[in-house]
From TrEMBL:
<feature type="domain" description="PpiC">
    <location>
        <begin position="188"/>
        <end position="288"/>
    </location>
</feature>
<protein>
    <submittedName>
        <fullName>Peptidyl-prolyl cis-trans isomerase</fullName>
        <ecNumber>5.2.1.8</ecNumber>
    </submittedName>
</protein>
<keyword id="KW-0413">Isomerase</keyword>
<dbReference type="InterPro" id="IPR000297">
    <property type="entry name" value="PPIase_PpiC"/>
</dbReference>
<dbReference type="InterPro" id="IPR050280">
    <property type="entry name" value="OMP_Chaperone_SurA"/>
</dbReference>
<dbReference type="Pfam" id="PF00639">
    <property type="entry name" value="Rotamase"/>
</dbReference>
<dbReference type="InterPro" id="IPR046357">
    <property type="entry name" value="PPIase_dom_sf"/>
</dbReference>
<keyword id="KW-0697">Rotamase</keyword>
<dbReference type="InterPro" id="IPR023058">
    <property type="entry name" value="PPIase_PpiC_CS"/>
</dbReference>
<keyword id="KW-0732">Signal</keyword>
<dbReference type="GO" id="GO:0003755">
    <property type="term" value="F:peptidyl-prolyl cis-trans isomerase activity"/>
</dbReference>
<feature type="domain" description="PpiC">
    <location>
        <begin position="291"/>
        <end position="401"/>
    </location>
</feature>
<dbReference type="InterPro" id="IPR027304">
    <property type="entry name" value="Trigger_fact/SurA_dom_sf"/>
</dbReference>
<feature type="signal peptide">
    <location>
        <begin position="1"/>
        <end position="28"/>
    </location>
</feature>
Length: 462
């Protein structure tokens, strides 16, 4: 018999609510089960309204914690803590459903593609990823899609509850002063690294070759060959190629304008002419219109860049580097005005720590290529242009800037203000979430397997 408990609120750690919200090097975080040869008896261990927590959910995260502990024993309440976080996730989802909080399919697809590209890159190839999980890539994506959508909804709920919370410098200092001096965290070596990226521009010959190849593919489809089969064979969009080029439904203004305009001029089943966008050249087939949404499939070809294209980008960055070193422009302004990586460019070129949003990166978070480059650099120096491949596979060049290199030390308010401010903000957001849980705990019920009844899930705030 499953025990039924009224759900109260409890203190919430934001980092625990979305345990796998960001991709990391742990393949278990793919969220699509375990590698081949590793099996576990599954079953429902908790329910929050119509949301369920599976035993495998808990076991997967527990396995990650065991791996991170590197042989050290875990606290005895580890499984309860994980289950508490999972139950809180489900409470957010249950309330999101009640409050009609949704995320757009385009956002889900974008995050899904990013994560899949990351895992393929880490393990080496799509084939190796399929062998690792003993599942086809399409099935892996579908299983991960559910997790990604839930996490985005949870994050949206949190943003609505505590997104406007902020802290003042005075509150940050008060937070630090409350910390026991003998329990201050000890930070390992951390660096701040900036980059300015220039993507190699494709020359006309390469563009013409891609267009000609795509026109040949179009002719084959018109002659009777299957679009989906050719998409799997030729398309260079890794996210959709495995699904025969199928992108799913999108609303107006959710896809790049060139693609959308060409797609909406078609009748269902019709083929577009060759369409150029920032991603390359597309051949588009409209599948269906449904209200203000439409579904398509496409074949994408990306023109290859050559040495001459990369050299041009290198020369442009070399000139920019000379201006930075002569103090005629700051690295931050140069990055903002010139970098093709808009995420870091908008941050003055500085790379962000995905764990806490700061610009301080521990050495184990760095790409090996960056680590071995900055290892011999002095603070304030800028590298010559270096070859680089962007996350979406484009040939590029970048210069790297070492802004700071902080040796291992115990936390202090001067050197670690940014991290302490993030912790103070996190605590304040926790309190806002506590208030929300207290107000909403009576609207849902929790069912928990007797094996875990001692965990006291979602206990009321003291």
């Amino acid at each position: 018999m499953i025990q039924v408990l009224r759900v109260p609120a409890r203190k919430l750690l934001l980092s625990a609510v979305l345990l796998a919200a960001s991709a990391t090097a742990s393949y278990a975080q793919l969220g699509v089960g375990r590698p081949v040869g590793q099996k576990i008896v599954d079953g429902i261990i908790a329910k929050v309204d119509n949301q369920i927590v599976l035993r495998s959910d808990l076991e997967t995260i527990y396995a990650q914690e065991v791996a991170r502990a590197e042989g050290k024993p875990l606290p005895p309440d580890t499984q309860c803590r994980i289950l508490q976080s999972l139950a809180l996730n489900k409470l957010l989802l249950a309330k999101a459903e009640t409050d009609s909080v949704v995320v757009e399919d385009s956002q889900v697809k974008s995050e899904l593609d990013r994560r899949m590209a990351y895992f393929v890159q880490q393990i080496g190839s799509e084939k190796k990823l399929e062998e690792y999980y003993n599942k086809p890539l399409k099935q892996l994506k579908e299983e991960l899609r559910i997790q990604v959508k839930e996490q985005l909804v949870q994050q949206k709920m949190q943003d609505q509850i505590a997104g406007k919370v902020s802290v003042t410098p005075r509150e940050v200092r008060q937070f630090f002063n409350r910390m026991p001096k003998d329990s201050l965290p000890y930070y390992s070596t951390e660096v701040e690294v900036g980059q300015i990226v220039k993507v190699a521009k494709t020359n006309n010959k390469a563009k013409q070759e891609s267009q000609a190849k795509l026109n040949d593919i179009r002719a084959r489809i018109v002659a009777g060959e299957d679009f989906a089969t050719l998409a799997k064979q030729y398309s260079q969009d890794p996210g959709s190629a495995v699904e025969g080029g199928y992108l799913g439904f999108f609303k107006r203004r959710e896809l790049v304008p060139e693609y959308e305009a060409a797609a909406l001029r078609l009748e269902p089943g019709g083929l577009s002419p060759i369409v150029e966008s920032q991603f390359g050249f597309h051949l588009i087939q409209l599948i269906e219109r449904k209200g203000d949404s439409y579904s398509t499939r496409h074949i994408l070809l990306k023109p290859e860049t050559g040495t001459a294209d990369t050299n041009e980008a290198s020369q442009e960055l070399a000139k920019l580097r000379r201006r930075i070193l002569s103090d005629s422009v700051s690295f931050a302004k140069a990055a903002k005005d010139n970098s093709d990586d808009k995420l870091s460019g908008g941050n003055g070129g500085l790379m962000q720590n995905r764990r806490d949003g700061s610009t301080y990166l521990s050495l184990d978070q760095l790409d090996p290529a960056i680590f071995f480059t900055i290892d011999t650099m002095k603070v304030g120096s800028v590298t010559p242009p270096l070859p680089y491949r962007t996350d979406d596979g484009k040939d590029a060049v970048r210069i790297l800037y070492l802004k700071s290199n902080t040796p291992p030390h115990q936390a202090n308010i001067d050197d670690d203000y940014q991290k302490i401010a993030a912790a103070a903000l996190n605590e304040k957001k926790n309190k806002a979430l506590d208030t929300w849980f207290a107000q909403n705990r009576g609207t849902v019920y929790l069912e928990v397997d007797p094996e875990y009844s001692g965990c006291q899930l979602l206990n009321a705030v003291n």
